[in-house]
Amino acid sequence: MNKDEKIQLHRKKSVAYSGTNVKICVSHAGLTLGEDGATHQILEDIAMMRAMPEMTVINPCDFNQTKAATIAIADYERPVYLRFGRPVVPVFTNPDQKFEIGKAWTVNEGKDVSIFATGHLVWEAILAGEMLEKEGIDAEIINLHTIKPLDEQAILNSVSKTRCVVTAEEHQLNGGLGDAVCQVLSRRLPAPVEMIGVNNSFGESGTPAELMKKYGLDATNIVKAVKKVIQKKQQVFADYSSVL
Fold it and tell me: Which residue, of 90, 155, 224, 238, has the fewest CB within 10 Å?
């Protein structure tokens, strides 16, 4: 961490420590910054901001949701970290939506697996859901746009039905959405989990699509993770039945 980065982190910590009504809005998040490469790709920010006491962390999925989130945080009297990317991505949410901080959005109900996605990976999860449907797998897709405070009840309600989970994020696996979901499940409802994210690596230069594919963050890899976690679930039930 260089001198300027240390100064910025100290300022954010000071905002959280004093509970100051400051909104930190950060673009260029994730791998999809593309050609500018690792020095410009933010892949660790969710972990750092989640660890900050009193900080709210929001990661919307498209232009409409980002606009709604920006309006919502303006009236929210506490520190907020709002994360968004730079590239053009599909716009698929309602332009007139009301953004509820800390309240997950169920994109699609399903019974076989819970896919919890955030940011640009929500669209990839939707594409994965369409692919899975053709194979007879009914995926529940939930947009966890607010990573802190996390909508724990939405997670528990979904997993109590599906009994297995895939998380998807454009961020390091360490400290991100997947870790947050696993913390909830380990305390309250243990279940098999597979996580889609960057695995302990910096990014590199390339087009957004090339990077998403190389680092395993696209719909195809979500489908693979779903099939893997369903196998885990089936094995768990088989082991349980053999004990009985």
Answer: 238
